[in-house]
Amino acid sequence: MKWIEGGVCAPKGFEAAGMHCGIRPNRKKNDLALIVSKTPCTAAGMFTKNIVKAAPVQIDQKAIQYPTAHAILANSGIANACAPHDMENGLLMQKAAADALGIACDEVLIGSTGVIGQDLPGDKIAAAIPELLAKLTSDASGSDEAASAIMTTDTVKKEFALEFEVGGKTVHIGGISKGSGMIHPNMGTMLCYLTTDCAISKDMLKKALKDACDASFHRISVDGDTSTNDTLLILANGEAGNPCIQEENDAYDAFYCALKAITQALAKKMARDGEGAKHLITCKVSSCASEAKAEVLGKSVIGSSLTKAAIFGEDANWGRVLCALGYSGEVFDPEKVDIAFASTAGTIAVCAGGKGLAFDEELAKQVLHEDEVIIDIAMNEGEAEAVCWGCDLTYDYVKINGDYRT
Amino acid sequence: MKWIEGGVCAPKGFEAAGMHCGIRPNRKKNDLALIVSKTPCTAAGMFTKNIVKAAPVQIDQKAIQYPTAHAILANSGIANACAPHDMENGLLMQKAAADALGIACDEVLIGSTGVIGQDLPGDKIAAAIPELLAKLTSDASGSDEAASAIMTTDTVKKEFALEFEVGGKTVHIGGISKGSGMIHPNMGTMLCYLTTDCAISKDMLKKALKDACDASFHRISVDGDTSTNDTLLILANGEAGNPCIQEENDAYDAFYCALKAITQALAKKMARDGEGAKHLITCKVSSCASEAKAEVLGKSVIGSSLTKAAIFGEDANWGRVLCALGYSGEVFDPEKVDIAFASTAGTIAVCAGGKGLAFDEELAKQVLHEDEVIIDIAMNEGEAEAVCWGCDLTYDYVKINGDYRT
Q1: Quick one: which of A253, B18, B243, B265 is 20 to 30 A from A37 by CA?
Q2: Which ranges in chain B are annotated with CATH 3.10.20.340?
């Protein structure tokens, strides 16, 4: 398994493009993305658990039931949620792409991200489709343009691709995602589009996507909010020519392993690019009674505003970590818990058996001054572990979200 | 029922004092508070649900079982939690006060608030008790001094008192509290000490305290963190001479009504003084199927970082309000929801039937520019309602918590 260039264009038979169609007239950045497979795909998706679901989520939840999928059309700038003509504009967007590509409407999956409550300019999007089609390319640049077109407050593009072997054939998975604020591990928590040339049945694809999501996007938190638009999609066109994966065999394991790696890479990049973030926080909870429990404990720590603010201040205030474990809802013996902070600058043990240790404050400052900080928690009660990712809470988070609409 | 001066000293037979004993040597503010009843009291308490419980919480959970209580001794600066000698110092503190007052150890309830993981200077506290006793007074100044002694990042004292009638007698309730960060409606969420001269049985006092807490401290949020030290105590000495309240009769109702009013006043003041807060947010959820559901929905809104940041930015980004309702865990029809923002500057409807309304952005800015902002949500599905309180998320919250220990 090796990391390669090309994002969603790395798998055979996929093309992508991005452009500026003017959804937010005063912001001259790409705002419309298209990903197309030359041949029909098996598809799987996961969607927000928010009761308030944006029109594109409702449309995709129907379309994903269709036997095949062919394309994904997504915009940034406006979320197409809770707006007077949201469903109408979503369907218009879907139909415009289907007509231009000569495929069924239900073969087009759509996505939107941005401000809630405003009407999407469906006409602008429909009018832009011919130009977008003309820009489609299987070069890495196509994935790049698409990745930038779904960014909102993101400061970096999130794009990865992997090459690996399945049944003697070379197979690829590529992915792009956007996500920076409103990130929380209740669901897919962002837009993420994955492509693969692996041949795999719909059932196996669904299972792999769900499990990989549980181990990646469900383990990150920026601010505890879950959006109305969260969507995670994968299109598999089988162009790699491997024997179609129909059951949980070695081939499935190879595919799942690669899918998990790419979703974790995208998830970590989203946490690192959390709105205003200065630090990526990796919280590792080990020697725990079960993985599920370790995950709940880890999520409580990365979700704690006070812990996040302490990391921003590079302050080794481990009491807040223990406190966040304590209100996680899980039962444990506080007098068994050890806590350390670590980074490339070193490791510093701050709490053993639930009690504070004397430690070198200067070294602690250095450890926490690094961009990537690890909170290493040993529960000393079992063998299981889980890793979760988050970011610090900074002035810039408040600034970015204090005036998002203007 | 009328609001009066005097805080915890307003009820007959109570004295209080506060002083600087030097728990944080470089911070010259009151750090030790004492509240004493001349006669033995019936007492009730509520404590943090955090698995990690500070030594004073563990000590109080035992002491509150004792038939009578006489005094409360509390410090700020160090939380006396997860420190090498936490239990030892807590017991020393309790015994020093009991010996000086000539009462049983279990008649002294204690409390601590501040940094987790550091040892409390138990000797300094014990040495300060004689001076603290000499300062005890039933004047309002005693309550003032005690209220300031439990403040940490609080910027204002929280102190109220009420006078009302029970069984033909004039009765009083007084209270002081501290709380500004690490506030969330999972429990008592702070230190709060209440006194009353009402005669009331222990069972009735417990019931009234729990219900009042549910309608006040359990309905505020600053940052979603629950501390290790949360404690809510009430001492009732019966000095008002009313027939002892033994059941849920009119006298109980009068007492409960006053207790609820004072706990809500303290809770609102804590939310208003949330760390770094510029706005008090009152979220009213009405025409809901049940009060419990309205409460869950309201708490989700006041707990949303994105909504809090939008209010800081005075940005009428109602989509975040609808979104927070949607991930609350409650099921409802988004297409029935109406949302308005209100303040002394006016009321502005922003969403009807789950869809955005065109509204005057200039008026919206004016409405949200006021210190106290109301988010008024109609679910249009029933008759019940609940009100919750929170505050905005500001640069100063991050600043205060980025370097709390130093």
Answers
A1: A253
A2: 280-402
